[in-house]
Specification:
By secondary structure, the chain is α/β, with parallel strands linked by helices. 40% of the residues lie in helices and 17% in strands. It is built from ten helices and eight strands. Helix 5 (99-111) packs across helix 7, helix 7 packs across helix 8 (171-184) and helix 9 (197-204) runs parallel beside helix 10. The termini are close together. Bound molecules: 1,3-dihydroxyacetonephosphate (13P). The site of 1,3-dihydroxyacetonephosphate has 14 residues, from strand 8.
Length: 235
């Protein structure tokens, strides 16, 4: 079953978020997940019935405590969320999240029964200097260190140079990296980075592309629904 996940990042107001989740048209042959801003998690999760699951965009690696501004795995579970996005490149590069912190967060999410989508991906400089595979292998190995049961883990390969730039990896580049990741760990691998209706079919047709993690195009019901429809034809 293909996965279509929408990462809304720090976008939308409450009425827009509720309207968007109500407008999503899931299909039974596709796993549809949305990651709303934490502030809108409760109403979005409440309206996300009918085959849409929700997740938190980031969690802290402790359960509770004096960590102003953070949210935790037990909080997400307590409102009915099923997923945690961990190690998104914006967390790594803007907020300085390390592989070690990513690993703690993955463990914490799994401990509380959340499924995890762990993001990995190289920067443009790393790709141009021929280090893309080495960087992604390190992120995969370090992020999942000490975790034996990977049945609730998916990886999202999101090359940093393709995020929000309109420049998606070619389907061949995605396939090559997904195949590489799957040789390290046997988990579903999603592709993220400028996915839109016009390139979703070719990306999702690749043998090792098990789904997509969509940013910008998940903010409009029309484009997100179109990507779900395309995925359903390939599931
Ligand atoms: P865009 O689809 O806007 O490039 O964002 C991708 C992403 O970061 C999803 O997590």
């Amino acid at each position: 079953m293909k996965v279509v996940a929408g990462n809304w990042k720090m976008n939308l107001t409450l009425p827009e978020a509720v309207e968007l989740v109500k407008s999503i048209q899931p299909v039974s042959s596709v796993k549809v997940i949305v990651f709303p801003p934490a502030l809108f998690a409760v109403p979005v999760t409440r309206h996300a019935c009918r085959g849409i699951e929700t997740g938190v965009q980031n969690i802290h690696h402790e359960d509770f405590g004096a960590y102003t501004g953070e949210v935790s795995a037990p909080m997400a579970v307590s409102i009915g969320m099923k997923y945690a996005l961990v190690g998104h490149s914006e967390r790594r590069h803007i907020f300085g999240e390390t592989d070690e912190q990513v690993n703690l967060k993955v463990k914490k999410a799994l401990e509380h029964g959340l499924k995890v989508i762990m993001c990995v991906g190289e920067t443009l400089q790393e790709r141009e200097s021929g280090r893309a595979f080495e960087v992604v292998e390190r992120q995969v190995r370090e992020g999942l260190k000490g975790i034996d049961d990977l049945s609730s883990v998916m990886i999202a390969y999101e090359p940093v140079w393709a995020i929000g730039t309109g420049k998606n990896a070619t389907p061949q580049q995605a396939q090559e990296m997904h195949e590489f990741i799957k040789k390290i760990v046997d988990v579903p691998v999603l592709y993220g980075g400028s996915v839109k209706p016009s390139n979703a079919r070719e990306l999702l047709s690749q043998k090792d592309v098990d789904g997509v993690l969509v940013g910008g195009a998940s903010l409009k019901a029309d484009s997100f629904n179109e990507i779900i429809r395309i995925a359903s034809e390939l599931s």
